[in-house]
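Exercise 3.2. Students should predict the tertiary structure of the chain below and write it as structure tokens, then compare their answer with the key that follows.

Predict this chain's 3D structure.
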Amino acid sequence: MLDKALNGSKSYWLWLAGLGAIIGLAFLVYMKQWSFGLGITGMHRDFTWGFYIAQFTFLVGVAAGGVMLVLPYYLHDYKAFGRITILGEFLAIGAVTMCLLFIIADLGQPMRAMNVILNPTPYSMLFWDAVVLNGYLLINLVVGWKLLEAERNGVAAPGWVKPLIYLSIPWAFGIHTVTAFLYSGLPGRGFWLTAVLAPRFLASAFAAGPAFLMLLCFIVRRNTNFDPGEKAMKTLMKIITYALIANVFFFACELFTAFYSQIPEHMAHIKYLFGFDGHGHNVIAPWMWTSMILMLTAIFFLIQPKIRNNEKYMPILCIMVFVGTWIDKGMGMMAGGFVPSTLHHYNQYVPTPSELMITFGIWCVGFVVITVLYKIAVSIKEEVRA
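Answer key:
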């Protein structure tokens, strides 16, 4: 089936060439980081996880969001998702690939990743995060490829694939739950020290993942003869609506707990995020207000069926959801945990151009993976339909 990826239009190859050029530039910057160290980033003693881990946290949710297609289609036989389930699985592969690359970038020296294998520590959340991420990548790769191969040949998928499909459902919940435990298991960080963090992560994942998939479906439909189906798209928009409402509700619960109970440590982090800390210039507050406005505005329009089901507004609403959750669960989550520090110092963090370039390059790697996999999937579906 790989031959499908080698046959494409001029725009297809120009797109891949453009991504490749950016990846090449980002790799040169990464070589500088490899030789000099993480000193080229904006991270410091009080802010030890930065833009790389912010992207990692968000993209784990994008990968987990694919379960919102797999669960209805395979467990409840919701046939409307039949055409796009494979796209959700392939999106998960691209997202997890980016997650792993961001971890490598954040390590400084990539060979340190081998310590997880050579010195396994089952009591460490980092160990289990490595297990669930690599396992989820393998499951989606095997399942997606075998199902697509069976569809192309007009035969039933091998019997052993079905248990893997069922396993992928709790595994999808697991990858983001374990990621949340990385944060909520740190008792010195008041903003992260909450039992509702894992549900909040999952809610944002089930909004951002389908929103990103919807945008990709619009791009695919515009450039190919593939049609994801009106019913499937409308159902995805409903899922995005309910998940986004749950995400904002969980954050509101955090606000109530912190301010009604007057917990100083918890209030300090939230006040900083929204610029009420009283410590002068705040780099994150405008972003957090933008995030909240985008999510609340999206909810206002999404709860109106006439707007939610209008294909003219669907892409705009999905962009609002995607960007809003990207800010909230990305740098919002990082800054909220690290500022103020455990010694109540307000040392802010701003990513450097080098960090941004490496980040942009890793996103381009993810888009290359998604582009190639989607090219194969769409070509085979068009072939079968013909």
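Discussion points: The chain has a mean pLDDT of 92. DSSP finds 15 helices and no strands in the chain.
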